[in-house]
Design a protein that fits this description.
Length: about 180
């Protein structure tokens, strides 16, 4: 059960999270959403999410309440590299795609410090959308915007890599027959 003080703390943090920004003018909607978030803590070194896992138990969105995590991807040969570091002070979240689909996790998220998170499960998010379609649609639209931004960036990155490859081939004298 959520106490009033912890509910107030949750809604206060959720207001600062870009994914829920559109709900900040609707206290009732934000409170309804906040009631669905549980709290979980993990020690430094714990993997909150593991890239490639198919486990359904981690289908959730995480909002960092306290601590710092690292987002880690694997190269094709399987070597890990750090993509980003996310800190609670950034008013940040991760795992949002799990609210929409049940595909494999796309990255590992490791606790760099002891961490505490607010967690929204996919099951609870879907139930919220069925019960309160306006809230579900608002959050889903924000996730769609994030996906669009990432797709545009990926497209630009592909063009940049292609241009660099073409330049490299041209400078080396072309492709041998």
């Amino acid at each position: 059960m959520t106490t009033d003080s912890s509910l107030s703390e949750k809604t206060g943090l959720l207001k600062r999270i870009s994914l829920f920004e559109k709900l900040s003018d609707d206290p009732a909607a934000l409170e309804e959403l906040a009631r669905l978030f549980g709290t979980v803590s993990y020690p430094q070194g714990h993997n909150v999410i593991i890239e490639g896992t198919e486990s359904r138990e981690d289908e959730a969105l995480y909002v960092i309440k306290k601590g710092t995590v690292e987002i880690i991807k694997k190269t094709r040969p399987g070597d890990p590299y750090k993509v980003a570091e996310l800190r609670a002070e950034m008013n940040i979240f991760f795992g949002e795609l799990a609210l929409l689909d049940q595909e494999k996790r796309s990255a590992t998220v490791a606790c760099k410090t002891d961490c505490e998170f607010y967690v929204l499960s996919r099951r609870d998010f879907i139930a919220l959308g069925n019960r309160s379609p306006a809230i579900g649609l608002t959050v889903t639209r924000e996730i769609a915007k994030i996906i669009c931004q990432r797709l545009r960036k990926a497209n630009n990155d592909i063009i940049t890599l292609f241009d660099a490859l073409v330049e490299e081939v041209a400078q080396s004298g072309g492709v041998a027959p």
